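User: I'm writing a tutorial on reading structure tokens. Could you give me a worked example: one chain, its sequence, then its tokens, then a sentence or two explaining what the tokens reveal?
Assistant: Sure. Here is the example chain.
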Amino acid sequence: MKITRVEAIYLRQPEVKQQCDSGQDALIVRVETDAGITGIGEVDSNPMGAKGIIEGPFSHTTAAGLGNLILGEDPFETEKIWHKMYRGNIYGGRRGVGLHAMSGIDMALWDIKGKALGLPVWKLLGGGFHQKLRCYASSLFGATPRETGELARRYRDQGFTAVKFGWDPMGRDAETDVALVREARKGLGAGPDLLIDAGLVWDSKTALQRAHAFTEYGIFWLEEPLRPDDYDGYRKLAESTPVRIAAGEEESGRQSFLELMDRGRIDVVQVDLTRCGGFTEAMRIAALAWDRGLPVANHGFTTYINVTAALHWLNSIPNALICEFVAEEGTNLRESITKQKLRAVDGFLDTPQKPGLGIDLDEEAIARFRV
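And here are its predicted structure tokens:
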């Protein structure tokens, strides 16, 4: 079997709001083979930047378009192809958007392997730890503390045992920050876990003050309170509070995760399959976290392709903690572009069982949203 075509498809809703909702557009990767088997993947990044890296021409041996670079390769040789892509785009691809672009291709290759063998990706990865995975409803904060509390009640009533709120208006002032968490806890009640995503808004001292203030409301973790390069700030924060500090969605590649784990001393390692280097690199990152006694969780605020990939990965590692599941309402792109629609039941998601990723594109929706 040989790779014959690599395509990056940019999708976008007619209306995109000025908010941190990465499910309003999407970059889908499609890899075709001469055996008639097609794999799909996803990239959560600057979409047109990643599309250029995938579909761009050959420039020279360390700056090559990834799609052209892997034409004619055997899709089963994922390790070899991963290193070929990394070496072939090393000038611009060691971190950030270059690794993001590789992620979508790697994901599609594993989808091809699973379809060719008639097995789900998690079985190819050697998994089988979970028949289902606990997930948390992931949402932006409401515009006000009161609206946040109303959202919390809604998600609790849908059966979620854990709910996360994040980003604006967190970070405006101490009173608003505490009120957002207080009302979220009031809406959830005493039982469900409450996760807070600060959205990169504080310095380490302010983050420590907020962590202490939030302990009254029993938060499960405090996510990304600092800018991602402030590894020393993360260490000071993590070592000074009993609250779990979670981070990692901004990282790409295991070297940057090592900085976050060893220098930043975080408590929960968050890995986005569409950014970190795909399944191939995510397995290495999970092993590094396991060696350090750290649990991992996925990050994914885009489409059901990302969530499905995360379910395969989390089922393949011993240190999976919980799965992120986007609960934001009114995002029609996410709900439209795949034939399968994921639904949580009593706060859990079933492990995929179909060959490959087990999720398929809805071609009519792809045509409708394609830019």
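What the tokens reveal: The first strand starts at residue 3 and ends at 12. The chain has two domains: 3-118, 124-369.
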